[in-house]
Each structure stands twice: as C-alpha cells, then as structure tokens.
Amino acid sequence: METMKMGILGSGGIAHTMANTVKEMKDVELYAVGSRTLENAEKFAAEFGISKAYGSYEELAADPEVDLVYVATPHSHHYPHVKLLLEHGKHVLCEKPVCSNREELDILIKAAKEQGVVFMEAMKNVHSPGFHAMMDNLYKIGTVRRATIQYCQ
Fold it and tell me: Most buried one in 64, 66, 106, 149, CB count within 10 A?
C-alpha cells in the first residue's frame, strides 16, 4: 500500500488530538497543515514533524501532494472549508458537525460525488460494532418516529 499524505486544516486543540493519532498510524504521513497564519502553521508543523506549513487554507487545498484533509476548524466554518477542499479534489474527513443544515450537506455530497472523492464526518459511532448491532435490530421495535441521543463518556 502506498503511503497516504494527510493534511490538517486548522491548528487548534482538536487538530492536536488528530495529529497525535495520525502519528501512530501505519501508511499515513502527516504531511501538511494549514492555519490562518503562517506562524501558527509553522509552530504546529514543528511540534509534529510535518513537512509543509501553510498560512492559508487555500494553499493547503491547492497542494497536489495532499491526498486527504482533516478539517479541525470551528464548526461554524466547516461548510466553506470542506467545500474548498472538495473543489480541489481532496478526500475530506470533517470534525462534527459537518455543516448546519441539509442544504449545505446536499451541496457537499454532490461536490464529493462529482470529484469522485471520499467525504465523511468524523463520527466514530458509525464504525462501532454497537452502532451496527443497533441499526441491524432497529426494525424489531417497529417504526421509529423520534429518537433522542446523547453523547457522553
């Protein structure tokens, strides 16, 4: 398998958590970071041994070496950031929530399909065995009209 070059868009707290996680992954190189300022990007890159530091999100999106970008900016900015990355043909993993309404989500899904790239929200529950067991057995209780879900640790 070829090494995937990953970028992180944003350099705040959740970006640090993801960078630590990626450093432990096999076949993934934490290659680039984009931040609002070059100073922040360079500081983040130095901390995690990242090759490329960009002082704008546009520069990160335009880097042809970046395969996948994790969006770690405040959720109020997810939509325009994901849209930018998809327009540049990047695979995108976005912190939750990915956007604030269905219309924005439909636009992003359409853009991902047009570009032929993977776009998903960083929601670990959809990958857990418990979630799949629940979904597989949901039909047993009948029609679900309303659900309340709480996330806690």
Answer: 66
